[in-house]
Structure formats: structure tokens, C-alpha cells
Amino acid sequence: MLQAIAQGFSRIGVETKVETLPIATFFSRATNREFALFLTTYATTNSAELLRQVVLTKDQDTGAGPFNRQRYSNPKLDAPLLAALGDFDADRRVARIRDALAALEEDVGVIPVFYPRFNWAGRKGYVRFVPGNAFGHTNAVFAEPV
After folding, report:
1. 2: closest CA among 29, 28, 40?
2. Which of 1, 34, 56, 78 is most buried, by CB atoms within 10 Å?
């Protein structure tokens, strides 16, 4: 995937060099901001948690933005997100999360490049597989005979 993305950047004149690294090395270097651009992923079924971890303004004292390696910061995202994280009213919380997402989209704070699709196959009439989560994890527990 990274090779294909790099080729696209090269076609529009952006010089690219693809490096694949062991995860510990990659995250150390990304945290030290050694890359102009990097590809990583973060998965959760909770949009507020994703925003808190990845794009909320990094603050070591409060623990905000622990995976915000790009040091993105936008007060228009932070304010509604922080309010949502402390709000027990579901409708108000969802509205605030939407406001935070709108601020991120308007600012182009993160560029979603691709969305993975998961496919499973089994012999028709023998097995049925229903993925048990949004992350696409394959687990035999989710397979059942037909």
C-alpha cells in the first residue's frame, strides 16, 4: 500500500523514499518527527477515542493526544471534543463529536488515504463466517457450520 501511495506522490512531483521499519523503530522515529509524511493506522469503534488519541492537541500533563505524532493542534477541534469526553448526555456528546470531526475535516488535519476492506471466503454450504468486530480480525470463533 505504501509503495502505491509513494508512486502517486512521485507522479505529482513529490520526492518519496519508502522505508519499512520494525514497529519499535518506526514509532520512535515518528515520535521524534523524523518523517515528513508517514503511514500508520489506529483502530477503534469509538470516534471520540480516536480523536482524543490521534488529533487532540498533545499535552503530556493531561495525557491528551498521546499518538498525535504530527503535533496537529486545532482549538476548534479541542474544545468540542474535550466537552464531549466529559458529557454523559448521549445526544449532546454525539453533537460535540460531530463538531470536532467537522473542524478536523475543514482544516484537513488528517488525510485518510484508504479504507481497508476485509473479505473472507469459505466453501458454500459448509461454513458461514461472520466477522465479530469492526477491525476485520479473523477468528475461528466467528465461523460456524452451515
Report:
1. 40
2. 56
Which of 129, 125, 131, 122 is closest to 143 using CA atoms? Answer: 129
68-117 pLDDT tens trace: 988 999 999 999 999 999 999 999 999 999 999 999 999 998 887 877 77
DSSP 8-state class, residue 142: G
pTM for this one? 0.73
Measured distance CA(75)–CA(139) in Å, rounded: 41
What are phi and psi for residue 144, nearest 5 degrees? -145, 145
Q: Are 96 and 80 in contact (CB under 8 A)?
A: yes
Q: Which stretch of DSSP H or E encloses residue 7?
A: helix 2-11
List all residues 6 or more positions away from 1 whose beta carbon is below 8 Å from its beta carbon: 39, 114
